[in-house]
């Protein structure tokens, strides 16, 4: 029999992957538990494997069933991979949401920009504050990261304290916001921490992540030495980097022009919440063309190669207001997220072909990660002294390296788990005690589909091999009423011998229909299946691919 005060943890996203973060904590026994959710994020679609899918979200069917026991959703910070799924999924849960001021304000702005967004109330918690969420007492501990007001969560329960780090790093000289609260983390370690649920993103990298202050100095040097126009692209949410770019522009006597809706939104929220106090006003894109070349700096969205973002349009020379020419410079103050290399490479190549100088973190310290490297992970472990460490927020290699580091650092118990694993944290020996439903939802236009959705599977197949459509009209006696109609989409016009594929498929349809006994010709389903098989076989024979084939039989 499970003890009444058993504390459990399960990741529903964000383990074995970077993105789509959703963690849940349960308190009670196996018959009745109160649940606390931490973060509700997205990851992004890959056109090669998921054509037409923009966003991927965690499957929350388990939380839907437990909705009456879901005490609340707490946000560590306002990055898309931690809060980007709320607008789509919260209506299925309707639980209270808790966040600090900047995260709440950015979420409100995101809702305002979304068509038909539901009204979603958020309770604002002060940085460093503590709140009761059902039987959980949640403490917001400031940590340095690449967005204002990132927080680790100390989750206090009768069964013990868990430190959920969220995304963090140790930056003793942040240019914006508070540094990681070492003092409070050490105090927690002295009081006793049952488990540390920790960010693994940079667990493969030795040393320490450099400071934002170093990046700010580099950007000032680069902007001051630039001769023509300058464009800088970075993650829109990185307000410290936006401030660094603004300071560099001021030092070089340049005006900052903000280009891209996401950047405009973050700048507005940062001003409203005081994070850009004292920073000069920025200009709108229509002013850009009227400013001298050495007096303007464009701050652009699109650092990840997003095709509709500002930088992609500038690189393709189809932005209505912003152009770059030979002698101008673009600074990529960002790192390329794995999977985006092709898109970013294409933009860089287009800029180079226009004679633009491209500056990246390969050559200059224009970006630092917001995640801890190995020495920082060791510091966190030494401060917090957890009895158990569970690596999260990383792919298999990151989780494994974080686990090895934790064992070497003397953590008594280390567990590497997968999405859906239900882990008992305490009391008693920790371990995986079950499984909860987990999976992925795809946002397809305005519709949410599960990963086995017919539309998603078929579209992937069509992207690979096109599709064949055949329409056949038959009489009640099983004779052709007219010639079959054939339409081939995404299939080559001719085979290697130069023969038209339309003719090849048409002949295959005719010979199949005429070769069938009349009884099968009078059965629309049997006729359609025979034609479908014949069309796929003949295309495969001449092309080496088997496209989906849709056959419509009409009886007249």
Automatic annotation (TrEMBL):
The keyword Repeat does not apply. SMART domains: Lactamase_B (SM00849). The keyword Aminoacyl-tRNA synthetase does not apply. Keywords: Cytoplasm, Exonuclease, Hydrolase, Metal-binding, Nuclease, RNA-binding, Zinc. One of its GO terms (molecular function) is metal ion binding. InterPro entries: Metallo-B-lactamas, RibonucZ/Hydroxyglut_hydro, RMMBL, RNase_J, RNase_J_2, RNase_J_b_CASP, RNase_J_C. Residues 21-219 form the Metallo-beta-lactamase domain. Transmembrane segments: none annotated. PANTHER family: RIBONUCLEASE J. NCBIfam families: MG423 (TIGR00649). This is MBL fold metallo-hydrolase. It comes from Bradyrhizobium guangdongense. The lineage of its organism: Bacteria, Pseudomonadati, Pseudomonadota, Alphaproteobacteria, Hyphomicrobiales.
